[in-house]
User: Fold these one by one.
Assistant:
Number 1:
Amino acid sequence: MKPIFTLFLAFVTISTFAQKDFQGKATYMSKRTMDMSRFDKMPEQQKKQMMARFKNVLEKTYTLTFNKTESTFKENVKLEAPGSSGPSWAISNGQGSTYKNVGDKEMIEDVEMFSKRFLVTEEMEMPQWEMGTETKKIGNYTCYKATMVKEDTSIDWGSMFGRGANKAKDSTKVKEEDVKTLLITAWYSPQIPVSAGPAEHWGLPGLILEINAGRTTMLCTELVINPENEIEIKKPTKGKEVSREEYNKIIKVKTEEMKERFQSRGRGRS
């Protein structure tokens, strides 16, 4: 069941949309559900404890700053009380930002992974959105529905700990029929005339205020248009520049190494 949001979308207009240097800042609440089927043999009390520990990993807030052509999407990192954070590998990996320039068709993911900082650079290809006629209100904005089905290239970190973690290496070879697909549903508002959105999402005639992708939902909870203080969007420059293909290969190798370590620990305890 998809998570239900009851958050209020604040609407703040500092000046008109006709302003030449149109820009804004949006806050998104992200919620992700966990597939608990891999832990079906775990006692219920232990499951609850695990979910409580993972809460800060599954529920996050982000800020999207944007103008007509550029945007930066970054996690709002907060200090956690001792013992309240998720597992160390989940906390240390993946934090960073996503920079998009729709004019230059360039996207750069500034990400820290395995104690190294990467600038994952790729050319932005126009997403194949299927435009719908269904509408709904998010805050004061009328939003239209758009959907898309694409290959799911996300990393399933949980597979290391649950069922399937001990499969033979040959089973990691993905056959064509085994490729996972992901249904993405976006709600965008033409009232905010920028082709931007959270994370890697873009390509619609208006700002994306809500995105549903698999087990993750991101909802805009606050929006400020043309704030008094000018917003500066900087293109990331620090880190090792790699292509998406190169980065995926690095992740695959490191993931296999992590699997081997976890499997070795399991054999040592048996």
Number 2:
Amino acid sequence: MKRRFLMRNVFVTLFVLSVLTACASTTPTPVASIPVTPSLPAPEPDTAAPALTPSVESPASPAPADDYFSQMGITLPVPTCSGLTQSQTEGPYYKADTPERNSLLEEGIQGTRLILVGYVLDQSCQPLPGAWLDFWQADANGEYDQAGYRLRGHQFTDPQGRYYLETILPGLYASRPIEHIHVKVRPEGGEEVTSQLYFSGQPTEGLTVTTEDRGDYLLGYFNFVVQR
């Protein structure tokens, strides 16, 4: 009787253990998942250069740096035309491929400062933008620079057909004792004209610069009239 009781307890114990083991190994019923919007990854540090925001202090269309007329307070008179500009000899001192510049003044140059301004016009007296002008001249001692480009330079007329040259009054030299500045003018798509400009002390009809004394410099006016 006692033995039968013990055996029954053993069977009960084994049954309970088997049930517990089965429960532990049973796969749990999955819980219904709620859709979750994936979070965006944190932005990486921007190593690219930041976009530049236009400064309110800077003009959208800055005035051109070579607007000498505004800087010097120069207003050109209404142009008048009286025939084409006369051609004159080139002379022996011309050099091609001069630097593009409006001012021929350099360190060490001495003489009376001259600002020469005017228009390049066609035969109908209309301004010619983009016209090419090439100037060369002697220094205050009447000497030409043959080694470099001292007192030599070319430029182009602005959108209003104006030119501006900053230089000095040329000196006299023995073989030709008259103040003059050499120039070549060529409108876009037009013919090139070679000529010379003179001053009131020794005028030449049709080629004399009109000057006015502005204290620290002379202001000269001359309009070129060429065939387009």
Number 3:
Amino acid sequence: QKAPEDMKLFFLKNPLDTCNDGTRAGYYLREHEGSKIFLLAFSGGWCCYSKETCDTRYKNIWRLMSSSGPEAERAGWGQLASSATQTAQHPSPPALRASQSMQRGALECALWRSSCNFKGSGTTAPLCISIGGPGHSLKEVFLLTSISAGGTGMLLDLERVVTLLEMLGAEAVQVRGLVDLGWFLDLKHPRQSDCSDAASSAPADAIKKGLRMWKRILLEKCKLKFKRVDEWQCFLGYRLYSSLKSPVFVVQWVFDKEQLRLENIHLGSQSLTEIQWNYLKNLGRELSNSQCAVSAVFAPACLSHMLITKSYWLEFQVKGISLARALQCWEKSLQSSNKAPKICMRSCPFHLIDNCPWPYCNPTCSALHDHGIGHEVNFQLALFRMRPDVHSQGKEHGLPTQVQRVTQSGV
């Protein structure tokens, strides 16, 4: 049966379940009969931690804080799209066909919230009850997906969803998480002064400032690992991950453009200071290291932010494997976890991290767009302009030969 093209708007039944500004919380939903997957998607949008920063956030991205004036229907994006070209439902290529059940859920919806939403955690339970409780056929898998800062909120809510489904008599449902760019690191950053703007405040700074305001319920198992003053670290995916019982698949660019922007680093035509250059290299190294213990991960060495929301998300590969293929392998491994034989990771891998130390050393990366000059730029030339010494270090640090040749010639 063909799924409807657009997702339709619904509101939560309890008027006390609201957005930041007091308007009723809602979600977009598309039903597709016959699927065994229930897909719930949360959006991102960073956070705010004071009246001033929340006012700014409301002014700039009010859709993440309010349900006033929404469209009755909206098209899905990336993995939520109904288009076969975006959702890996082509009938021919095995790698694309295989992840069909992952991309085409029985119920697909997007809730207005971010991880730093004051009532975001509180609206998760009534949302699950509204569309996954009595009156709806139970599915085999409940997949929570999220993007950017919404990934933090999803990870914090994951085990609560498991408990809730058990209370609803649906303990047989398998709960899983798919987080896209919710893996912020608390590295020592190159900022010279504090910034009061939430949109450009470093992750650790924003979390520390907002912890009391959000009154977020943290996972008890994670809290026990830290002193009370350091409990804010449970908002960081790589700190929280080991406290989770449910399977999680992490999608993450090795060089996250948003984390670099929060540290006031903008790759393009501008030059980089020694501190910024070292931070860039350290970010890629530390992010890769932080995901070594993650059982399922897809991390291309590209400079970007968010992946599964892109219409061309199927094009990216790590070591010759697409995200659709990796998700299929992950799904098969979970299905066979209690059966024999188990999936061999060598023939069907789902732990994929680029090991090259430079942005754009992955040939499937999208072109670099420099907002300062308004068009795409050749990253190799941009790298040379930012760091004139890079060609002399290229061979030592693994810069591809063709890139060294370009930077040396300057053309």
Number 4:
Amino acid sequence: MSSRRPQYVFTSFPRTNWRLLAQSGCSSLRAKKSSSNSELTTVDTIRFNQQQQVDTAPLPDDIPKVKEVGASSAPLLSASYFIGARCREYNDDFMQCKTDSAGRGEFDCLKEGRRVTRCASSVIKDINTHCLEQFRAHWTCIENRNHQLYQCRPMEWKLNKCVYENLKLEKHIPDQRPGVTPVELRPHMIYADVAINTMEGKPFIPPSKAEGSKQAS
């Protein structure tokens, strides 16, 4: 009869920090007993206790109310450059306020934050009013393509054209090299899953970039 003691092992999750699992709410960890000649066994069950935390306390009455933007990540990404074009001054004021507030930006910069929110909401509203079809096609593509902008250039070009014609807002990516075609205007995306079909449209070049390209040449 062997005097070797039975072993209790946790082997189903290599390199797992069991202490962190326990601290994060992991419960019901049960190990199987195994002998030295048997295969390593696994953990029976792992259950995590999760619940959504919602703070239902309203803001104080002295803080003016502002309606949230109410858009998910894909529409916000689609409209982000136009939001930046219209709301740059408000964004700069908000960031400057946070820099000057020495860690109290959440309290000291509420007024600037409300301006940013209202401006962003106005851009979303105007795009929905004048370019709903193009906007929806673009953000739907972004949503379905892992939020990778280079996968959705044809839809983006149509949206850029519509927004410029109706709202006079341009998409501008800062700090791009002079004399080089901006990345959003290139007709070929080497990392895209599907090659761009020329029948789907061509890059929209706003007048400001067209004049800049003429001067560079």
